[in-house]
Specification:
The protein is mainly alpha-helical and 79 residues long. The protein has one domain. It is built from four helices and no strands. The chain is elongated. The two termini are 23 Å apart. InterPro entries: Kinase-like_dom_sf.
Length: 79
């Protein structure tokens, strides 16, 4: 079972999840940049920075209508 099968999302949650994902990625790259300034020789702290930036860029270029339709469909809501 997936999360939605046990705790079904409400439509508003589905419509907002795209923004939550982007906010979390933005937090990750911001924290990574801050950590890099504090400990520039600790490469482990920035290991996920590049993949996070790549995903942010991809998400920025996706048609928002398709994103909403996809999440709604996966969670068994009609578009």
């Amino acid at each position: 079972y997936g999360y939605n099968e046990i705790f079904p999302f409400e439509k508003i949650e589905i419509d907002l999840i795209y923004y939550f994902i982007r906010m979390r990625l933005a937090m990750s790259v911001t924290i990574s940049a801050h950590q890099k300034q504090i400990q520039p020789d600790n490469h482990y702290l920035v290991i996920s920075e590049k993949p996070a930036w790549n995903l942010l860029e991809k998400l920025t270029n996706i048609d928002l209508n398709i994103v909403h339709q996809t999440f709604r469909s996966i969670c068994h809501f009609s578009n």
